[in-house]
Amino acid sequence: MQIGKMDNEALKQVFIDLHPKIITSINPDSIIDALLSKNIICVDDYYMLRTVPGSMSRCRDLFALLYRSLHPETFIQLRLALLDQYPWIVHDIDEQLASATAQLHLGDSADGRLSFCYQLIILYKFK
Q: Which of 109, 90, 123, 106 is nearest to 10 (CA)?
């Protein structure tokens, strides 16, 4: 599956739109390790986050890092990190993504493969 910059940007916008709900619903410690292992955050970021007192403050700092990230799969990997422990949040993300991409008419990429976001929409609608 090819993942494009547009897919990551679409997911980033969904995370921004759902930011208040996500920040109050997740424990950042449950995803920081996964993001470090995928090189979405660096070791320095990891140690800095570990020193932030309070789960909500740590979560806000984590998302501040992620919103500034230049990694091409930041929000794709973030969605995957949330999948096991927070399926209801991923459901909301996929629902919002389906709505957003339907409005943008995202679909086939130039090489004929379906975009990652479009595949998520198909999975969401037919599960």
A: 106
Q: Helix H segments across 18-125?
A: 19-25, 29-37, 43-50, 55-68, 74-83, 87-104, 116-125
Structure-block tokens of residue 85: 């422990």
Residue type, 125: K
Total number of domains constituting the chain: 1
What is the Cα 102 distance to its own chain's centre?
18
Q: Which residues of the chain have pLDDT under 50?
A: 1-2, 106-114, 125-127
Output the domain CATH number for residue 77: 1.10.533.10
Contacts with 22 (C-beta within 8 Å, 6 or more apart), sequence order: 15, 63, 89
Is the Cβ–Cβ distance between 14 and 117 less than 8 Å? no
- Domain containing 114 equals 5-125
Tokens representing residue 102 in the block:
């339907």
pLDDT given for residue 9 in this prediction: 87
